[in-house]
Amino acid sequence: MGESTKKIKIGIYGGSGYGGSELLRILLFHPNAEVVFVTGNEHAGKPVSEVHRNLTSLTDLRFVAITDDLNELGDIDVAFFGLPHGQALELVPRLPSGVRAIDLSGDFRIDDPAVFETFYKKKHAGDLQKRFVYGLTETNREAILGAEYIANPGCFATATALGLSPLIAKNLVTGKLIVDAKTGSSGSGARHAANTHHPQRVNSFYAYKPFTHQHVPEIEQHLRSLGKLDEPLVFMTHSLPVSRGIFASCYAELERDTTTDELTGIFREFYRDAFFVRIVDGSPDINWVKNTNFCDISVHVSGRNAVVFSAIDNLVKGAAGQAVQNMNLMFGLEEKTGLVFSGSNP
Ligand SMILES: NC(=O)c1ccc[n+]([C@@H]2O[C@H](COP(=O)([O-])OP(=O)(O)OC[C@H]3O[C@@H](n4cnc5c(N)ncnc54)[C@H](OP(=O)(O)O)[C@@H]3O)[C@@H](O)[C@H]2O)c1
């Protein structure tokens, strides 16, 4: 069929940030993709490689500013949005007809308007929200296949939801789920504030947003779509003194005594068709998933107590890589296309 052989024409909104940088790193080498334009209002006119020096001599693209009439930016099949929360809410309704969208922000992840407005302090998308599919690829593949618009999951949400989905889908949990999650500093984007600046974080360790992190509602909403979630998720976020990577430790009380081998077997079966989820022994390590689209998971059980460790690269599986994985499915390509690369050792 046509769609799998011709190039998919792509526009990237917000291409000068970290998420945009990763989209470019992947899409410029994707065999079925052609990046038509990249926006960066502050850098309009500059070569992309002047901002993303890793792309020197690899692209002639220049940043463009977002125009009032989005048609003027170029003819595309799909728009990726790597903009701060709130901006895709305004831009998606202005997309030329027939253009699909994949949004990396939280603008379209939450179905309940009141919950969205509490966590994001923005007006909910209303009816437009119904056209979005939540893009946690491994658990939502069927819906993503025909999707017009994708709400790409948050980085913490990806690591956590992949760690917890088998437990909820197989109805193995009783009582509370507790998640202790840590992120590297690139999770805060290219523009730093005093408390998110890498030099402040690199020799330090602290918790932030207790009980109020904006990824809590999307994780709960997603888990509820798979099965029974008895109690609110207890979810704590921490700053890890590295640039990239998320590591989530997810604690659960199981319905009955289980063994590590048994639960590992359940996870392997649940993710049997998921190339990008690797069930590993011992502990995952953010080193082995860094710069890749893999999520490494291990499970450990003592009686009825279980812990699931889950590690991803926040900018790849937690953002741009998963977005491209979703694009592949939306356009009838093999899910792995353009995304099979290992990390480095060490
Ligand atoms: N960083 C992560 O690990 C991660 C993971 C998953 C999802 N996300 C989400 O992906 C989106 C982009 O994140 P990011 O980390 O790539 O952010 P970023 O590095 O700060 O980049 C933001 C991009 O948006 C543009 N922009 C437009 N108006 C802006 C404004 N008022 N303030 C700041 N930037 C503005 C910036 O370029 P111009 O100003 O030149 O237009 C830039 O291209 C966010 O919604 C974020 O929540 C991020």
Care to describe what's here?
- This protein has two domains: 2-153 and 317-330, Rossmann fold; 156-314, 2-Layer Sandwich (Dihydrodipicolinate Reductase, domain 2), CATH 3.30.360.
- Helix content is 29%, strand content 22%.
- It contains twelve helices and 14 strands.
- Helix 6 runs parallel beside helix 12.
- The model has no long low-confidence stretch (mean pLDDT 96).
- The structure holds NADP nicotinamide-adenine-dinucleotide phosphate.
- NADP nicotinamide-adenine-dinucleotide phosphate binds next to helix 2 and helix 12.
Overall CATH architecture of the largest domain = 3-Layer(aba) Sandwich
CATH superfamily of the largest domain: NAD(P)-binding Rossmann-like Domain
How much of the sequence is in beta strands?
A: 15-25%
Indicate the overall shape: globular
SSE string, helix = H, strand = E? HEHEHEEHEHEHEHEHEHEEHEHEEH
Our measurement of the CA-to-CA distance between the termini, rounded to an integer number of angstroms, reads: 42 Å
Strand order of the largest sheet: 3-2-1-4-5-7-6
CATH class of the largest domain: Alpha Beta
Task: List unreliable stretches of 5+ residues.
Answer: none
What's the count of strands?
A: 14
Q: In total, how many domains does the architecture comprise?
A: 2
The residue fraction in helices comes out at 25-40%
Bound molecules: NADP nicotinamide-adenine-dinucleotide phosphate
Quickly count the helices. 12
Main beta sheet: strand number and arrangement?
7 strands, parallel
Please give the radius of gyration in angstroms.
20 Å
Q: Report the average pLDDT across residues.
A: 96
CATH level 3 topology of the largest domain:
Rossmann fold
Structural class: alpha/beta
